[in-house]
Amino acid sequence: MFFGANVENASYGLGRCAEQSAVQAMATAGGRDFTDIVVYSEASPPASPCGACRQVLYEFAPDARVVCVNHHGDVVSGHVRDFLPHGFRLEQRDDGHEVGTE
Q1: Which residues belong to any copy of the CMP/dCMP-type deaminase domain (predicted)?
Q2: What is the pTM of this model?
Q3: What is the C-alpha to C-alpha distance for residues 45 and 24, in angstroms, rounded to an integer?
């Protein structure tokens, strides 16, 4: 299990989202993919990953389950593919089919 934290910065582009932070912790520990990610926020409805995070998640685990939950217990869930339709990965064949990143 890996944790991430949202780190705000005055220059928005330099901030780090919790999802990316968790993926970086996983990669630093030698992980290559994951099966589930939980996004917690106090937003109502629950906040979902931003576009940049969706791409990062897709790159590592397009079939992983995403569970977005808030402090009221509201839940929005799906798979990374659901949150980023028509996503792409760094390594793809010429015919558009995905190839693993291993």
Answers
A1: 1-91
A2: 0.82
A3: 27
Locate all alpha helices (DSSP H) within the chain, ordered by sequence.
18-28, 51-60, 80-83
For the chain, list the domains and their CATH numbers. 12-83 (3.40.140.10)
pLDDT in tens, 51-93: 999 999 999 999 999 999 999 999 999 999 999 998 888 766 5
Q: Are 70 and 40 in contact (CB under 8 A)?
A: yes
Which residues belong to the active site? 19
CA 86 to CA 70: how far, in whole Å? 27
Residues near 63 by beta carbon (within 8 Å), at least 6 away in sequence: 79, 80, 81
